[in-house]
Design brief:
The chain is of the alpha/beta class. It is 39% helix and 20% strand.
Length: 317
């Protein structure tokens, strides 16, 4: 009799949890995380998150897939082809508010958390005479793959420097991996990259090829006048890359995003592991160790997903 009563109570509890929106882990399928190129931070961070999703049992499996970056990731998440994606705050703001590349077409995305800041790199050989973005006139420049956040900010920087991409500058739509190879071969004179510090691919390049980073001081005021606080002045410190001197750069925040209708329980668990498993994720992506609950909630104008909000409220002091 007691056993039967226990079974009934368990069934009632299960129904109640379902009615309250409790997560049904057994119904979850494989999780897809949209990242970036294999030599960038998005990819390594995504691999780390995928591993922890599987280890915690948040989903039966999780896979980090390579992409061109932010804009493609937004499209994948908004269409439901990816469950989570990494993207830069400027691209996410455009998508959420329906402006720029998403003019008149706001995307159904929500933020899971603010993760870390990207630093905008303009990489040139150490012996190059180029010193600032306006010097890129007449040069061959990798601006990031089509659909990437790097291409978005690179285009904005070129215009801020008084240059028209494709007219004043020979632009190449190359992602990080291809930009590194092209610079090594001498096929391009410079390339843009927006990523965390340090970015593994650039570290590897600097170890074999003397490099410099261009100062972005000259475009800061123009960018902030147009785009406000999306971009901030930052410093790439000495020692970030082998033999590369410190330089003034731009920083832009990065978010993990999900779909507006994503499973609330899954999102809450993924948000939790970003904090509680950050050291494990950092084994893949060292920047993950800097995840900070105090700044993670600041994703405006992109709304936090209810699952993320639920977790953040549960750990609020």
């Amino acid at each position: 009799m007691a056993a039967a009563l226990t079974s009934v109570l368990a069934a009632v509890l299960a129904i109640a949890l379902a009615a309250c929106g409790g997560p049904d882990r057994s119904a979850r399928g494989a999780v897809v995380i949209a990242t970036g190129g294999t030599q960038g931070v998005y990819y390594s961070y995504g691999v780390g998150v995928a591993e922890q999703i599987e280890r915690t049992g948040a989903a039966p499996s999780a896979t980090a897939v390579t992409t061109e970056g932010s804009l493609e990731n937004i499209q994948l998440v908004a269409s439901g082809r990816a469950d989570f994606g990494f993207c830069a705050a400027d691209a996410a703001a455009d998508a959420a508010t329906g402006r720029s590349s998403f003019a008149g077409d706001p995307q159904p995305i929500r933020a899971v958390a603010r993760l870390y800041d990207d630093y905008v790199h303009v990489v040139v050989p150490a012996e190059s005479p180029l010193q600032q973005p306006s010097d890129l006139r007449g040069q061959r420049v990798g601006i990031g793959g089509a659909g990437s956040g790097t291409a978005l900010i690179a285009t904005r920087i070129l215009y801020a420097a008084g240059l028209v991409p494709g007219a004043d500058v020979a632009i190449e739509p190359l992602g990080l991996d291809d930009s590194i190879s092209a610079l090594r071969r001498g096929d391009i004179d410079a390339f843009f990259w927006s990523g965390g510090l340090p970015t593994a691919g650039i570290s590897d390049l600097a170890a074999s090829t003397p490099l410099r980073l261009l100062s972005l001081t000259s475009v800061v005021d123009a960018l902030r006048r147009i785009y406000g606080s999306t971009y901030r002045v930052a410093r790439v410190p000495a020692g970030t890359y082998p033999g590369v001197e410190p330089v003034t750069a731009l920083a832009v925040a990065n978010y993990l995003i999900t779909g507006a209708d994503a499973d609330e329980g899954l999102v809450a668990e993924v948000t939790q592991l970003l904090q509680e498993r950050r050291d494990d994720i950092a084994a893949r992506a060292p920047i993950a160790a800097t995840f900070d609950l105090r700044s993670a909630i600041f994703t405006s104008p992109v709304e936090l997903h209810p699952g993320a909000t639920r977790y953040f409220r549960s750990v609020k002091p």
